[in-house]
Amino acid sequence: MPDMPTTDPRPNAALRRIRLLVWVLVALAALGFAYLWLTTQRGDRSEMAVTPQGQASSSGVQLGGPFTLTGADGKPFSSAQALAGKPYVIFFGFTHCPDVCPNTLARLAQLRQKLNAGPRPFEIVFVTVDPERDTPQAVGSYAQLFNTPIIGLTGTRQQIDQVAKQHAIYQAKVKDPASPDGYTMDHGAAALLFGRDGRFVSTIAQEEGDDVALAKLRRIVA
Amino acid sequence: MRTLLAFTALLSAPALAAAPAIHVTGWARPTVAGQAAGAAYLTIHNAGSGADRLVGLSSPAAAMVSVHQTSTAGGVARMRPAGPLAVAPNQTMTMGAGGLHVMLMGLKAPLRPGARLPLTLRFERAGLVRTNLLIQMSAPDAGHAHH
């Protein structure tokens, strides 16, 4: 078929422009749908490693108990030995956590100073919920960030799950393309307080004021 | 192509009428060797008469920079990407520990206390805004501001 002679090029050009506009709109719509799809995917949080969410309450539930993990030196850490006769505060987090975890650890370090009961009236224990990435060295150097002794611990996935369960700490791996390695960890945010006898005393929640937190800490160091 | 240009011109036309004026301050938290992620907290003040949105960030110190939102609702710490941040005219948007923060990923070197972190913010309308954040252990007024 021979080419149609274009008698008047102008309407044709206009038509081409409309066609281009339609295609631009189609492309925009496709991008929009792709964005929506991606954001809903992200929202639907595939939780890969989950332990049941426990209630951190002192009523009847016996939290804590002896556990074995790996210390920053790569050697086994036995709480029954290392924490015997020492009050301690235990907090779960991960080293790729740039906000909540350093905040909490910095605050615990600050509270320990404010308590004004000697240089180290209680131990601060940091347990990673991300043992796949957090090597003994990683938890060790992370713990050093706060210029005060903090016990950084990791372990096998099985050990971490067990210790988290013992402390009723919720943990879940959550997809996040905007985080390193494409995931982040959701985790119980409370710090758990244990007395000299190893018994659970109380928790310190993120939103609690320093006065309340200090009163609780006085109970474990007494 | 001309249609596309016309489109862009149409979209950016109100920018000429009411322009945003962005001022950024803030601080970054120190990190240790081997730590891949760090955080910075910004205060973004829009002194102009037009709204703007923070649509991207970058830093020579990190492989990837984005805004994340942390919450501890229900006792569980969660962190999610925040998406573009709107900064209304004559408004100040303040990030803070336990909430909105800038996440620095793939840090090339530890963020040393006392050093500065160069950060470039890309606003939808104001364009690129550069800042140098002081690296310190806690917010500048943390010692005095008790909530």
TrEMBL record, chain A:
Where exactly are the transmembrane stretches of this chain? 20-38
Instruction: Write out the entry's keywords from A to Z.
Output: Copper, Membrane, Transmembrane, Transmembrane helix
Q: What's one Pfam family here? A: SCO1-SenC
Domain Thioredoxin residues, every copy: 58-222
**PROSITE patterns annotated for this entry?**
THIOREDOXIN_2
Q: Which domain of life is it from?
A: Bacteria
Q: Which family does it belong to?
A: Belongs to the SCO1/2 family.
Instruction: Name the PANTHER family for this protein.
Output: ELECTRON TRANSPORT PROTIN SCO1/SENC FAMILY MEMBER, LINALOOL DEHYDRATASE_ISOMERASE DOMAIN-CONTAINING PROTEIN
The protein's name is SCO family protein
Source organism per UniProt: Sphingomonas arvum
TrEMBL record, chain B:
Q: Which positions make up the signal peptide?
A: 1-17
Keyword RNA-binding listed: no
Give the source's domain of life in one word.
Answer: Bacteria
Record keywords, A-Z: Signal
Which Pfam families did the record assign? PCuAC
Name of the protein this chain belongs to? Copper chaperone PCu(A)C
Q: Which organism is it from?
A: Sphingomonas arvum
